[in-house]
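Notes, Module 5: Reading structure tokens.

Key idea: the token line is not a picture. It is a compressed description, and you learn to read it the same way you learned to read a sequence, by spotting repeated patterns. We will look at two proteins. The first is printed below with its tokens.
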Amino acid sequence: MKKGHPAHRPILIQGAYLLPDNNLEYASIDELAPRIEAGDLSPVELTQASLDRIEALEPDLNAFLEVFSESALAQAHTAEAEIVSGNYKGPMHGITVALKDLIDVEGTVTTGGSTILKDNMATSDATITRLLKEAGAIIIGKAALVEFAMGATGMNPHYGASHNPWNLKRICCGSSMGSASAVAGGLSVTAIGSDTGGSIRMPAAVTGTAGLKPTYGRVSRAGVLDLSWSCDHVGPMTRTVADCAHMMNAISGHDPRDPASADQAVPDFTSGLKQGLQGLRIGVPLDFFYDDIDPEIEAAVRAGIALMEREGAIVSEISMPWVSQGRKINVGVNRPEAVSVHEEWLAKYPDQYSIEVRARLEAASYIPATEYIRAQRARRWFIEKMTEATRDVDVLVTPTVPIQTPTIEECIVSPEGDLIAPATNLLGIFTGVFDTTGEPSLSLNCGFTEDGMPIGMMISGKPFDEVTVLRAGAGFEAAAGLVNRRPPIA
């Protein structure tokens, strides 16, 4: 990798990295795209800035498993030539994207964060990769993840943990921890993650970024390694809500390659971003989501809801005494499905799994088929209850995670496979609810703890109504004015 220009190099001052203000590392798509279209900013310059940033900070962050330096620059030169010739493709043209290493890129290895698949060369692009390339995006590398995406803490014994740019001693959560670290640390403008129990939204929450789990079936998973076929989602991880919308415009749509892909009309996901919050109906659950959570997190989320109400939203409380079953159903479905994915590998390569992942899979292998069927039936019941309870609101607003961000040391797995900090098992209890329903769900920053760590607020909507979810997020984001806060590594 080439050394970066001095203008892009960080200066270490009392443990915090400071960068000269060159307006690229933390610029949004909304800021970059007009400059790229006008020719004021070259995709080559933007890509090189990302590569320089990766070279400088990757040793601290460990956000990537592989960086595509040469191919990214080649893509950037192609994008520049296209734009100069008048073939501008839209807001994603020339924008860097990090792909979670579950996603195939032709001619590169897809490891799934494992050693079992260390030689798993992709022979074609995943559909989402192809769509991003067709939109002119620059695929800058493969982001780190939890082994086979099975874990909430962001720990990977094979490749190490990704470090949180807000505090290098703290986790980025899992399993899309590298995608979150890359975006929060300014290493890539955008990233793609996957979410089976919360793995887009949890990392977004603890890194102060925006992460959208689209409706199940909205974005194709063809060419993406399975964890749980009926719970897996892929979606954008970005610096702003608007950037999630721009990415959704590029990656959404029906795909015959994915049997679960929904044949639904694709809206302009940016269409509601400037509508504000006036008249938006917000539901606040009376049950579960605000029980036994960290006081700072509850205070920040409730303050966010109050701000939305002052901006014209109509807030009402909703009784949902059954909602605590959502995460249990999510686990009851995805664990047996994960065993079906790993059955052959588990028989052939048991010693190549980490202690934690192997223990989960082996335990799940004893779940009888009748229990899986009961979980799927309970899932149908749960979806019907959610539909009924939210009939008179547009979105639900809740915390994303109930606890403050653990340290990496607290999440180290013992030789027996037990977590040192059992509280980390709580990380996904809220997010998993909306993997059970398959509804769109967004996490964005709503404040900070006393020690400076981001707090996530989750906005969840009705099936295939990402436009309203994004409208709510953008309205809050504009009113709160938090998007310009930078982590100390910046």
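Here is the second protein, with the sequence above and the tokens below, as before.
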Amino acid sequence: MVRVAVRCSYCGHRLHRSLWSRVKKRVFGRNPKITPFQIVLLVVFVLLAYKIIVYLVERKPPTYTGE
């Protein structure tokens, strides 16, 4: 089994990107600023999650009539 160094032996800097930095790069690309599209996507996601939660809370189970 080959071990790969995680940090530079000279300065201690991480040699591999963390999970967060990979996700951040995929979401934001090279520009770390938030775009209007990302804001709209976030608002749509939050509203959809809100509607689903409200629906599940207000949903009434079917009543049994005893037939």
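Summary for the second protein:
- DSSP finds two helices and no strands in the chain.
- The longest helix spans residues 36-58.
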